[in-house]
Structures are given as structure tokens and as C-alpha cells.
User: Fold this.
Amino acid sequence: MNVETDPSSAGFDADRLKRIDRHFDAYVDDGRLPGYLAVVSRHGRIVHVASHGKRDVESGAPVEPDTIWRIFSMTKPITSVAAMTFVEEGLIDLTDPISRWLPEFAAPQVYVKGSALSPMTVPATEPIRLWHLLTHTSGLTYGFHHTHPIDTIYRAAGFEWGTPPGLDLAACTRALAELPLVFQPGSEWNYSVSTDVLGRLVEVLAGKPLDEVFAERIFGPLGMTDTGFFTKDTDRLAALYVAHPRTKLPTRNEAFGSIGVSRPDSFSGGGGLVSTAADYHRFTQMLLRGGALDDARILGPRTVDLMASNHLPGHVDLEAFGRPLFAEMPFDGFGFGLGFSVLEDPVKAKTLSSPGEYAWGGAASTAFWVDPVEDLTVAFYTQLLPSSTHPIRQQLRQLVYQAIVD
Assistant:
């Protein structure tokens, strides 16, 4: 990743942009992060690249422009884009029940009360539809939430930070369909395995594995040559660290660090990809340009606009409609679209960003956002679990927008 234009030609103050470097260099120098890479682009040109530290602290290997990162939930927008290509082809509609293609979801049960060992359920009054998966309003959940009896049931079934060993995506989806929903589909927002189920739906629609769908419909056309569910070039893959529970300093985690080094049993559309800053930059530029980049058109501009609109009822934010659990973005002022958070109210969110900004992040503290108003994309890469350890994303927004002076 290289700077492509003088920052002043894109409306930035170059000296103010350097505050990004100073701020996050301090994160590395005092040990809060192993290393990082940040990319700022405006009007289609990269105006600033900041990086410091190690991609592997123990070996001393530095962060480099072509470092490969585990992007975890930044996989979700890619899966969502893939699904919308089938909507554009007329193979599925946003309101279609997913049971048409995934019959295991024909009769979901919804939790009412009781313990994880003895839950009481009732039949769903509304089928899970495609838009429920895209908006995390399906009633599915994550085992790592640790707040609801159904979360406990997920963990007991092998769904916490991964999937049961030996099960492919089809088998995982069938297993998830047997578990109760947390709420009636469409009635609330809850960060969940919805996008993993969406990945299986994409496989069925395409008649081929998810990795092939991504390669044919997104990665190949966009030239994203370093993005996939694993990499053979493990020397470039950044090591993964977990924040120490007391000091918050990075501690190498070999168990999580095995992710991305070999073909997984299940292709996780919710969090399984590895990528580079250059590759994901091409993905965000495609979105900012209305679904096309160079000679490749992935989506139509109206489809991108629909995805980047707040689909929560009445344009409310996640604080009003979502369960107060962990997600990769704040709840105040942010709604949710078809695969992204959507900034509804910058004042409520206490951010300098623009209304209509859409974004998401990954569990290892990676993040991106697209701001159509400012014609801006920003991405940040590091490898520290969990992403809630430090307020990196809000700080990065502040540092980027304070440098825009036009």
C-alpha cells in the first residue's frame, strides 16, 4: 500500500494526518498493540498510510504493506455482497423465507423461558427471511455472548468462537437450525451467526462451495488475490494475540492463531477470511463507487444504496432495537443495513463522521468504514482479540476527520 496523491489535493492537512501515526505508534511502543496498519483514501486515491510494529513480535517480523490479516467479521460484508448478487439475478428475494432453500429452517422454535437445560419454546410466528439474515434480526445468536440460556445451548453444541470439528458448513447450518431462536424473527436485532447461515444459503443458490462463489463473483473480478479462507503464504500472516485479562497487553494465542493457516472444515461467511490491506481496499472502493471498480461490476449502484440504508424499523438505532450485547460497532446513533452498520445520527453517536457512513469490524480489532458524503474509505488492521480491548475505532474516526480541511 502506497500513498497515491498529495493529501492537500484531496482536502487533507498532511500534518494533521500524521497525528494518526503518533497516536497509534504509542499503542505499539507501550505494548498495547503488536503492530498496526491504517489506510486512508479519498476521491479514489490513497492519501495516507500509517504502520508501525511487528506482525509477529516473537520472530521480530515487521508489519509490511502486504501483511496478511485475519479479518474475522469483516468477512460479513463480503458474504452479504455475494448474497445480493443473487438477489440482482432474481434467484431470491429479500422477503423470501430461507426454508425454501434450507428446509432445516422450515419450523423454527423460539425461546420463551426456562434454563439452558430445559428451555420452553413456541413455534415461530414469522419465517426467517433473507433480510433477517442480512440484518441480524433472525433470532439466531452467538455462543460467545454469555448472556442468554440459548447462548449456553450454542456453546454446548460446539458453537462459541468456532464450529464443531469435522462439520462442514452444510452440517453446521443443520445443527444451528435445531437450536431455539432467541426471539421471533424480525422483532429485535442481535449480533449472531446469521451471516454464517447466509453463507450456506449462498452455497445452495450457487450450487458450489462458498470459497468458489467468492472467487468467481468477488475476488477474481476485483483482483483480490490474497483473500481467502486460508493462506499458503503463512510467512506473511500476522500472528494473533489476545489481551491479557489484567494488563490488557497482547499475549500470543496459538489456538486462535491456527485460523487461516489451512483449509477449514466449515467456510465461515461470518468470520473466516484472511486478507491484505490492498485487497480489502479494492473491496471498499468497489462499494464506494456504487458496486464497480475498474472494469469489474459486482453490484448495481441502487443495490449498494439499499445495503447502506438503515433497515431497522422507523430508522431507529441499535440502542433502541438491539439487545445490549457485544457487537463490532457502538449502538448509539448507529442503525443497521444489509451487512453493515449505518450511521444514523452523528450527534447521538458522538462522532465526526457523516450520516450514511457504513462500516463494520473484526474480532481482532480490524475495522473499516465507507463515507459516501466525504468520498472516503478508511481501514485499520492489527491482530488483538477482543476488539473491545481499546477504543481504536472511535479514536481513528476522530483522527481522520479532524484532518479534513476542505
